[in-house]
Amino acid sequence: MFTPHTDAERKEMLTALGLNSIEELFSDVPQQFRFPALDLPKGMNEMFVREYVEGFSQANISTKEFICFLGAGAYDHYIPSAVDSILRRGEFFTAYTPYQPEISQGTLQTIFEFQTLICNLTSLEASNASHYDGATAAAEACITAYSHFHGKRKKILLSSAINPQYREVVHTYLSGIQDIAIETILDDQNSLPDPFAIEGSIDENTALVMVQYPDFFGRIYDFSNLIEKSHQKGALVCLIVNPIALGLLKTPGEMGADIAVGEGQPLGIPLSFGGPYLGFIAARKELVRKLSGRLVGETVDKDGKRGYVLTLTAREQHIRREKATSNICSNQGLMALAATVYMSLLGKTGMRQVSNLCYQNAHYAAQKIAQLDGFKVLTPEPFFHEIVIQCPTSVEHINHHLLEEGILGGYALESVYPDLKNCMLLAFTEKTNKEVIDVLCDILKESDHD
Amino acid sequence: MTEPTIYELSSPDRTGFLFQEPNVPASPLPKDLLRDDLPFPEMSEIDVIRHFTRLSQLNYCIDVGFYPLGSCTMKYNPRINEEMARLPGFAMSHPLQPIETVQGNLALMYQLQEWLKEVSGFVGITLQPAAGAHGEFVGGLIMRAYHRSRNDLKRTKVLVPDSAHGTNPATSSMSGFDVINVPSDERGNIDLEKLKEICDDCVAGLMLTNPNTLGLFEEHLKEVIDIIHQKGGLVYGDGANFNALLGIIKPGEIGFDIMHFNLHKTFSTPHGGGGPGSGPVAVAAPLIDFLPSPVVGIVEAGDEETPPLYGFINPTQSIGRMKAFYGHFGVLVRAFTYIAMQGADGLRNIAENAVLNANYLKHLLGDTYSIPFNRNCMHEFVAEGFWDDAPGVHALDVAKRMMDYGVHPPTNYFPLIVKEALMIEPTETESKQELEKFADIMKKIAQEAHSDPELLHNAPHNTPLGRLDEVKAAKELVLCCWIPPEE
After folding, report:
1. Residue A450 pLDDT more than 60?
2. Nearest to B157 by CA among B141, B170, B176, B174
């Protein structure tokens, strides 16, 4: 299939090497371990493998047939056809990391444009070529802050309104650093955790204050004051942002934040059961040398023609080895390409439109759900495109009901916030318009009567 | 040939995608929370398609030709993989759907876990890591968690051979260990005597790439592993070079404790211009409980009539979560498709041909290029890109000249233990003719190095751009094509 040699050619090659059999090439492998049997099914040709793999795909329910109100870190947006059409170009997807700039300008300029778009989206000055996902970008931001202070400030403050999975990843990533303290401040929760509860804990030992915007419950706040207070204590501030929200909303840079990170999946990347996605990170220019991951910079070639190269590579593992800022080696090249094509297509107008559609649909839904008997909307104004609703019965029960009607219901919050009993997080996008919200509300109403 | 940037192509009020107007009653926007201008480009769909198509044409790629980048395993990326990953049941499923609605995804992941364990000889596995380096980080944290669970807190050191990938020492230090270098001997193996000297009961483990970055199988592999084990350390296998070992040896059987896979190398998923990769990590029995959470398992046993129910399980002493959700699922589908097509015979055939190709190419070049540590190699080998009688010509010049002949240069200046290294990995998907063509190009360049060194110094000549000024890039640090001027 994918190995072209004929038996005759193999033989010719072996003869040239002075060998009788291919097994002789493996004489360094200890004999008692050599050539083990592999207990795998017999190989299939393409026609059969297609049928086989399609069987797995068909065993799923997907957002192709079902309406999706799930969000909580991954969002069901429409992906314009142009995005995948570019992604399918072999020149992009079968290329390696652009170590040879003379023959990699396509990838390099794309990343350079990606960096520009992320900077302009967040109003910050320096973006890298991407991280694995939003959660790992958040963890890398913590390491950036820690190394910015040369390890002298040892506290990272996390708002309890940050996506719980992101907080878990931060904890795992930093678990190798002995003396670092990660604090998540919980207030007496009456309803939703207060993102400003961390304010009292900011001190001279704080390296980074991290909040989410919109937060995990959909709420939006102007963090300018919190940022100013953090800066007074000398701490850096990182906002975890949703890129679609920034089509409309005040930016991290406008609020004075030092770093912004986020999940780029909403920018033209399929849900794909959680990955591959796209982490982005942008920071003030002063922090650029402490950023991990790849950076692309503009330069000229020997004839003075504009071109792009990987730059500041001296921070990276292949040069610095154990002294590198991170062990990160790859980026999410192809996903960054998808996001760059998506943002270029939508442009100034489209980004605002999609952001506004999400906002409007969510607000319509909140008003309608608030009127249903037994249901309560816990997310207060202002919010962006996600809301927490409290249901009269268990989320599982309601979601089961919705599923029978072709709807993927919201995310059950109780598993991660035990106080939020019977609460679900619902997300709205340009795909969840008035008709489907009305259907949702009708079914919610019925589900109460079972 | 320079392509304008998206900002240079922008024209006011254009857009490349038309959204519908909201059909819900309008809600007022939060006035105090709106951004100023959104400084984005404005382009129509055809502007965008043409721009990125033209950009694509400035890239070299596997689809165009030979890409012998050592340690990167640039094999052909089968097209069926791409189609399977895009099936709506996979690509359009949300990661937080109830498990009953994603049994196809979970069954596929479970099956892939079983297959990867079988080819590597381990008993536990996580598919979560996003790339090889991410997998190494998982391995480092597992080592740490394992020793700590035994209250063995004195183990602060990780041993890393001097031939290792740069990610190995970087990972070790991110995982909280001090890095101790281990030298190689004159045959390219780990220096056993030195290893015995260095290894004590403060060693948490050894990170070992096998075959190593010289493309050589460690000749005293069992002894190396035993030395580490005798002192209570763990042996981590960097699986970057696993392509050479499919069906040849199971690292778990010979004594490795942890190993990561690079699905984007060994299992044919595309490199994508730098990602996404996927770096599952397999472990031996004593380490299963430390795997990142969650892993895919059977949560309700099936019987003759009903299939089992697949779901997520959190290992009891897990190091924690390494990323959001469960891994690069789309990449997993591609690797799964590839393994299903190969079966056991196909996998061994891959390793055999990869190793045959590397040895054949080494043989073809052996008269022209000096090859240190010259014994039977595995999937790659390292040549020296300089000649005593062609002073002033460096590996970089040789590499750049290759572009003029339409091939991608090998990895250069790595591994660090070879002077002017050219690290060549042909992979199994190249034909005999392609290898011979490449060898002829390499020989031609060697001649040019002697007869017309300037030709090499100024190379490449036939590429979209000539050599780029990297010093200027780092000094002036222009990272964006356009940002709004400050007011």
Report:
1. no
2. B176
Is some CB atom of chain A closer than 8 A to the CB atom of B176?
yes
As given in the structure block, the two tokens for residue A417 are: 């916030």
From A339, A340, A117, A348, select the one nearest B15 (Cα to Cα).
Answer: A348
pLDDT in tens, B129-153: 999 999 999 999 999 999 999 999 9
Contact check, Cβ <8 Å, B363/A17: yes
- Classify strands A206-213 and A155-159 as parallel, antiparallel or unpaired: parallel
Q: If you ran DSSP here, which 8-state letter would residue B197 be given?
A: H
Give the contacts of B20 (CB within 8 A, at least 6 positions apart).
Answer: A357, A430, A433
CB contact under 8 A, B254 and A50: no
**pLDDT at residue number A319:** 67
- Contact status of B340 with chain A (Cβ, < 8 Å): yes
Query: Virtual CA dihedral for B90, B91, B94, B98, nearest 10 degrees?
Result: -10
User: Cβ neighbours of residue B458 under 8 Å, at least 6 residues apart?
Assistant: A302, B466, B467
Nearest-CA distance A414 → chain B (Å): 14
Question: A190 CA to chain B: closest CA distance, Å?
Answer: 25
Please write the tens of the pLDDT for every residue from A119-156. 999 999 999 999 999 999 999 999 999 999 998 999 99
Nearest CB neighbour to A248, from listed B34, B67, B469: B34
- The pLDDT value recorded for residue A130 is 95
Q: What is the rounded distance in angstroms from the CA atom of residue A61 to the CA atom of residue A326?
A: 38
Q: Which residues of B touch A35 (CB under 8 A)?
A: 247-249, 348
Does residue A313 surpass a pLDDT of 90?
A: no
Q: 3-state DSSP call for residue B431? A: coil
Partner A contacted by B4 (CB < 8 A): no
Mean pLDDT of A411-438: 96
CB A386 within 8 A of CB A426: yes
Torsion angle in degrees (nearest 10) through CA of B440, B443, B447, B449:
120
List the structure tokens of A292.
Answer: 């991990």
Mean residue pLDDT across chain B: 96
Contact between A347 and B40 (Cβ < 8 Å) = yes
Chain A positions in Cβ-Cβ contact with residue B2 (cut-off 8 Å): 305-307
Q: By the 8 A CB rule, do A141 and A282 touch?
A: no
Whether the pLDDT of residue B105 is over 70: the answer is yes
Is the ipTM value over 0.90, yes or no? yes
Q: What are phi and psi of A266, to 5 degrees?
A: -65, -10
- Tell me what pLDDT residue B486 has: 66
Kindly state whether B2 is in contact with chain A, defined as any CB-CB distance less than 8 angstroms.
yes
Cβ–Cβ gap A36/B249 under 8 Å:
yes
Preferred mutation among B44, B63, B97, B470 to probe A, highest tally of A CBs within 10 A: B97
The span from the CA of A163 to the CA of A185, in Å, is 14
pLDDT at A187 over 80: no
Q: Do B49 and B17 form a contact (C-beta atoms < 8 A)? A: no
Yes or no, beta carbons of B253 and A36 under 8 Å apart: yes
- The CA-atom distances, in angstroms, between A33 and each of A22, A240, A422, B208 are 17, 49, 55, 18
pLDDT digits (tens, 9 = 90+) for B344-360: 999 999 999 999 999 99
